[in-house]
Amino acid sequence: MSCSSHLAAVVLGFCVGGPVAAQSAPPAAVFRPVVAELRNKVQIPVLLPSKLPAVLRSREITDVRIMAAAADSYSVDLHYKGVGGDAGFAAFFSGARGGLDEAPAKHRFGLRTARSRRLVR
Question: pTM of the entire structure?
Answer without folding.
Answer: 0.61
